[in-house]
Amino acid sequence: MKTTAPAILLAIGAYFGFVVAVAQFHGMTAFALGLPSGAIATLAATCGVAGAIWFLFANDQVESPRPAQLLIGLALLCLGFGSYYGLFVAPPEQYMGEVQRIMYVHVPTAWNALLAMTLAFVCAVIFLFNGDYKWDSRMEGSIETGVVLAFLLCCQGAIWAKPTWGVWWDWDPRLTTTAVLLFAFLGILALRKFVEDPAKRAIWSAVSTIIAYVDVPIVYFSVRWWNSLHQQQSSPGTVSKQFWLPLRLNAFGILFLMVAFIMLRARIASLRLKHEMAPPLPEIAELGEAV
Amino acid sequence: MNPGTLSGGWNFVMAAYGVTFSVLFIYGVSIVSRLRQESKNDE
Predict the structure, then answer these.
(1) What DSSP string describes A48-74?
(2) Which pTM value belongs to this model?
(3) CA A243, A181, A231: angle at the middle one, nearest 5?
(4) C-alpha to C-alpha distance for A166 and A284, rounded to whole angstroms
(5) Nearest CB to B20: which of A96, A105, A274?
(6) Helix and strand counts by DSSP (H, E) for chain B
(7) Which residues in chain B are contacts of A91 at CB distance < 8 A?
(8) Are the C-beta atoms of A96 and A164 separated by less than 8 Å?
C-alpha cells in the first residue's frame, strides 16, 4: 500500500481543516499561522482532496482490500464526530433554527458529488488520450459513486426545502441543473449496461461523460447567474466559526467514503472487463482434434 | 429566539441524516457484495 506522500497531504489538510478550526473556536489564533480564514479553508480542501485522490490512484489497482478498509475506517471516524458535533454541540442557526443542521450533510454531499463527476471527467479525458482500460474502470466507479451522491443530494435538498421554502421541490435553476446532472450521468451508466463491446462502450461513455460534465460548472454557477431560491455559496468569512468543524469533518468523511467506493467499484469494473476481454475457451471438438 | 426563526424541525433533520447514512450504507454493502461475486467468478 502506497501511503507516505498522500498521508503527508492528508495530514496537512486535517491540520488546517480540524486543528485550526478547534483552536480558533477556543480563541487560540496562533495555530492559524497568521493565515486568513479563506486561505486556511482552501489549504484544507486542496490538501485533503489531493491526498485522497493520490491515495486512490496509487492503490486502486492492488488486489488487497486494505486501502479501502483504511479509508472507510477514517470516514466513519470523521462522520461519527462530525455528525455528533453537528447534531448536538453546534448551536442552531439564527433564522433556520435546528433545520440548518441538515447543512452538515447536504453541503459535503454536494461538494463530493461534483468532485466525483470531475474525477469521471478526468478519467474520460485520460482514457481517450492513452486508451488504457484502467481509466475506463476508474471512470465507471466515479460515475456510479457520483450518481449515488447526486441522488442523495436531491433527497437531502428536498427534505431541507420543505420546512424552509414550503415545498419539497421547485424548478429553480440550482435544483433543475442538479436533476439534469443526475439523469445525464444515470444515462451514461445505462449506456454502459447496454453496449456489449468493451472498446465501443469505453469510447462512447468517455465522450458522453465529457459532454455531460458541461453541466457541472452550470450547477455551481447557477445560483450566481440566475435568480434562484437556493442561496449563493458561503465562504468561511460568511459562516460562523462554530459551524466550521462539523462541516469540515463531514466533508472529509464523505470524501474518504467516496474514494473508497470509487476504489472498490473500479475494481469490480476491471474484473468484469478482464472476463470480457479474455480469449474464448476452445470448443471440446477442437480439444479432441489437438489430442 | 428571534422573530422569524423556524421552530422545531428536528424531524426533518433526522430524516436527512437517516436518508444519508442509509443510502451510503446500502450502496457500500452493494459494492462489497458485487466485488465478492466478481472475485469468486475470477477464481
Answers:
(1) HHHHHHHHHHHHTT-S-SHHHHHHHHH
(2) 0.91
(3) 35
(4) 68
(5) A105
(6) 1, 0
(7) none
(8) yes
Comparing CB atoms, the residue among B5, B17, B34 nearest residue A268 is B34
Cβ pair A186, A207 in contact under 8 A: no
Asked if A236 and A41 touch (Cβ cutoff 8 Å), the reply is yes
What phi and psi, each to the nearest 5 degrees, are found at residue A283? -65, 155
Cell of A284: 471440446
Distance of residue B18 Cα from the nearest chain A Cα, in angstroms: 10
* Partner-chain contact B6 A148, CB within 8 Å: no
From CA A72, how far away is CA A85, in angstroms rounded? 20
Residue whose C-alpha is closest to residue A118's, from A90, A99, A146: A146
pLDDT tens for chain A, 291 residues long, are 677 888 888 888 888 888 888 887 777 777 778 788 788 888 888 888 888 888 888 887 777 888 889 999 999 999 999 999 999 988 888 888 889 999 999 999 999 999 999 999 999 999 999 989 999 999 999 999 999 999 999 999 999 999 998 899 989 899 999 999 999 999 999 999 999 899 999 999 999 999 999 999 999 999 888 888 888 877 777 777 788 889 999 999 999 999 999 999 999 999 998 888 777 766 666 666 655
Q: Distance between CA atoms of B17 and A105, rounded to whole angstroms?
A: 7
Judge contact between A50 and A14, C-beta under 8 A. no
Phi, psi of A97 (to 5 degrees): 60, -140
**Are B28 and A257 a contacting pair at CB < 8 A?**
yes
CB A187: neighbour CB atoms within 10 A? 14
Distance CA A140, CA A262 (A): 8
Of A240, A207, A285, A243, which Cα lies nearest the Cα of A89? A243
Q: Name the phi and psi angles at A239, rounded to 5.
A: -115, 135
Give the DSSP H/E element, type plus range, for residue A210.
helix A198-212
